[in-house]
Amino acid sequence: MYFCRNLVELLETAEESIDICLLLLNLENVADVFLQALYKGIKVRMITDAHMANLSGSQVSSLIEEGQKMPSTSFSQLKTDAPVFNPSVVSGVAVRGMHYHTNMHHKFIILDNKLVFFGSFNWSMQALCGNCENLVCTNNSSLVDKFKIQFSDMWTEFKPIEVEKIGLRRF
Fold first, then answer.
1. Which of 14, 48, 54, 159 stands 20 to 30 A from 98 (CA)?
2. Which of the 8 DSSP states describes residue 4?
3. Radius of gyration (Cα) for the chain, nearest Å?
4. Which domain holds residue 148?
């Protein structure tokens, strides 16, 4: 778990923005970092596979539940585009998903438009404890810029997902 502690510590260094593009997110402590970032006023956006967001253990659902508890007055202090809770915003995290027959299989996170994490790492306990995975973290501006372009293109292409009692769906 030493790796996970270091990863969380790096994610906690975000000061302005966190752009998340992950097939799945099952690590509770990482989801907690994203939620804490919101409380600090950091802009957080997430692109995920809409079908994977509904799987058991998905932390997207946890972000939704916690976000619904977040006092609406605190949204006015956030650096996000959404001053109040609405269907396309999940706990202040703007979440968009791919709704195709194939998976959105990217796995990268951009911090403050300066640092990018990418690799085969699936952001799950299985990836931490059982799989052979790789995760690269770099501040190489050329690489960061390429991931920023990819995120921006996908953000434009994908649609917001909204919360329903039975799960997530496209709106």
1. 14
2. H
3. 15
4. 2-170
User: Which tokens hold the place of 94?
Assistant: 């703007």
CATH number at residue 20: 3.30.870.10
Distances in whole angstroms, Cα of residue 53 to Cα of each of 7, 35, 116, 148, 162 = 22, 16, 22, 22, 11
pLDDT recorded at residue 66: 62
pLDDT of residue 150: 96
DSSP category for residue 33: H
Tracing tokens 């967001």 back to the chain, one arrives at 53
pLDDT digits (tens, 9 = 90+) for 96-143: 777 666 778 899 999 999 999 999 998 877 887 888 888 999 999 999
H helices present in 12-160, as ranges: 28-39, 59-69, 125-129, 141-157
Q: Which uninterrupted H or E stretch holds 72?
A: none
